[in-house]
C-alpha cells in the first residue's frame, strides 16, 4: 500500500509537473487478480482498485492500518466500473453490474472479490475512510440511485450525476460517494469549480478512451495547475484545492469525500471569471 502525505497550499505553488503527479496522481492501480491501494493522510482516505480475472481476490489488511482486518475500524464504498462481478461479505453474496454500488460497514471481516467472466472482468473501485460506528452493508443498483441532469450542450458540460452514499442515500459515518457521466459532446466537469474546506475529495476517471485524456485542474482558485489523467487513474484533492476537468472527449468519473459532514452540497463555489 502506497502512502501519500499532506501538501501545504503554499508549497504546492512551487511544484513542477513531475512532483504534482508524484504527490496527487494515483496511477498503476489496475492489475489483474490484485488489490492495489493508496493510503492518504488527507482524512486517512484509502483509494484502490481490485480487478479479479481468473482468481478470487480477498480483502487483506496492511501494516499501515494496524488492524486485524481491513474494516476493523473502517467503512468502504465499492463501485464496479467493469463488467459483472461478485462481492462476498461475511458469507453474503452481492452481484454488481457495471455502476452498481456496495457499502461495507465497520466490522465486516471476510470480503472476497470475483468476476463473472475472466475475459470481461469486473473492476472494483474502492474508497475507505475511518469509521466510529457500524452501519449495515447496503447494495444499491445504479438504476435506483438518486440522479440529476446538470449543465448544457452550449457550455459543453451536460452531465448526469448519481449519488450513492450520502446523507439521504446509503448511510455511512463520513464517506460520501457517487459518480458523474458526461454526455456525448460535453467535456467539462464541475463547472463552476469549488472547494470544501471541511473535507477532502478523490476523483477517479473511467470510460476514458485509450487515445484520449482528461485535463484535471487543481490548486487554489487564484493559482491553478493541471494534471493529465488517463483511464482508471485517480487524483487526490486537498481541502484547499479546486477540482474540475476537461477532456479531449466525454468521459465519466467517480467522486468521493470524507471529513466533517455528509452534506453533498457543502462547498464553496467560485465563478469561472475568478480563476487564474
TrEMBL record:
Pfam families in the cross-refs: KduI
Stated name of the protein: 4-deoxy-L-threo-5-hexosulose-uronate ketol-isomerase
CDD domains reported in the protein's UniProt record: cupin_KduI_C (cd20491), cupin_KduI_N (cd20294)
Cited PANTHER family: 4-DEOXY-L-THREO-5-HEXOSULOSE-URONATE KETOL-ISOMERASE (PTHR38461:SF1)
Organism of this sequence: Pedobacter boryungensis
Catalytic activity: 5-dehydro-4-deoxy-D-glucuronate = 3-deoxy-D-glycero-2,5-hexodiulosonate
Superkingdom to which the source organism belongs: Bacteria
Annotated SUPFAM superfamilies: RmlC-like cupins
Involved pathway(s): Glycan metabolism; pectin degradation; 2-dehydro-3-deoxy-D-gluconate from pectin: step 4/5
GO-annotated molecular function: 4-deoxy-L-threo-5-hexosulose-uronate ketol-isomerase activity
Enzyme class label: isomerase
Purpose: Catalyzes the isomerization of 5-dehydro-4-deoxy-D-glucuronate to 3-deoxy-D-glycero-2,5-hexodiulosonate.
Positions of Zn(2+) binding: 194, 196, 201, 243
Cofactor mode of binding and number, as noted: Binds 1 zinc ion per subunit.
InterPro entries: KduI, KduI/IolB_isomerase, KduI_N, RmlC-like_jellyroll, RmlC_Cupin_sf
Keywords: Isomerase, Metal-binding, Zinc
